[in-house]
Design a protein that fits this description.
Layout: E1 8-12, H1 34-49, E2 54-57, E3 74-77, E4 80-83, H2 95-104, E5 108-110, E6 123-126, E7 129-134, H3 140-150, E8 156-161, H4 168-171, E9 172-174, E10 180-182, E11 196-198, E12 207-211, E13 214-218, H5 222-230, E14 234-238, H6 241-244, E15 255-258
Parallel strand pairs: 1-2, 4-5, 7-8, 10-11, 13-14
Antiparallel strand pairs: 1-15, 3-4, 6-7, 9-10, 12-13
């Protein structure tokens, strides 16, 4: 987890002109307002920058409708980044730009076996525990490879069935104290996590931790915002309606690199 005074860099990628063609799996397709999506993306980036985070833009990939969901292209553990092998073949071309950005930041990059599939949105890190969703975009070959890579680095990798949502982090994320939150109808197995807090809204399952007292949450989850404030957290809300139409959320739009 981050800590007070930690330097955080957020990798982000601007939404492209074909955003409306993005993949949908578990929801019905509805039109996306691309101009509104651009404004919402700027509001999201502003929220991260407002607490002093360094913002690094990954090169645009305008031919890839889902490229704005940059979290899916890599997962970073300390000083090593694991490049994704997207579970949807149409997203394969998104990874190269992220690799260049990571290289430019001096981060060591490693790849997965050719028969692995991994989307970054399936990986939830809480301290030295790493939960990886499988059953959708990520397969067991990738999870085994992560275990082999991360075991010597003292991480514990747990496979978690993920069948009700696109990615594990479409169902659960973690608060600053490590409590995992999720909307129960979306979570295959809440007992997989040592501590689980049920939230009342689909979009309430997703937070980005800004600091030990502050999280970013979608404005589509006002009851969850109230719940988190009752727990003593500061909650920054951002409008992400156009990304939610594509099963996106606050975590999907950035890769967080914490010192």
């Amino acid at each position: 987890m981050g800590h007070a005074g930690a330097m955080v860099t957020a990798l982000v990628r601007r939404p492209g002109p074909r955003l409306d063609e993005g993949l949908v799996t578990h929801v019905e397709r509805v039109p996306v307002d691309v101009d509104l999506a651009r404004r919402q993306w700027e509001g999201y980036v502003d929220a991260l920058a407002s607490v002093g985070w360094s913002i690094v833009e990954v090169d645009p990939a305008d031919d890839c409708p889902d490229a704005v969901f940059v979290e899916d292209t890599a997962v970073v553990f300390d000083d090593v980044a694991v490049l994704a092998r997207p579970g949807a073949s149409s997203r394969a071309d998104e990874v190269a730009g992220t690799e260049r950005a990571l290289h430019d930041l001096g981060i060591t990059v490693t790849t997965l076996p050719r028969d692995a599939t991994l989307d970054g949105g399936d990986v939830l890190k809480v301290g030295r525990d790493v939960w990886v969703g499988w059953g959708g975009r990520t397969n067991l070959v990738a999870i085994t490879a992560l275990r082999n890579l991360l075991g010597p680095r003292r991480y514990r990798v747990h496979a978690v069935p993920t069948t009700r949502v696109l990615h594990l982090k479409s169902a659960v994320t973690a608060l600053p104290d490590g409590t995992v939150i999720g909307h129960p109808p979306l979570v295959d197995d809440p007992s997989a996590f040592p501590t689980f807090l049920a939230v009342p809204e689909d979009e309430g399952a997703h937070v980005v931790v800004l600091d030990p007292e502050t999280v970013v949450l979608s404005s589509s989850a006002p009851a969850t915002a109230d719940l988190l404030r009752e727990r003593g957290l500061d909650v920054v809300t951002v409008d992400l309606t156009e990304y939610e139409k594509l099963e996106g959320c606050v975590t999907c739009l950035s890769i967080r690199l914490r010192d």
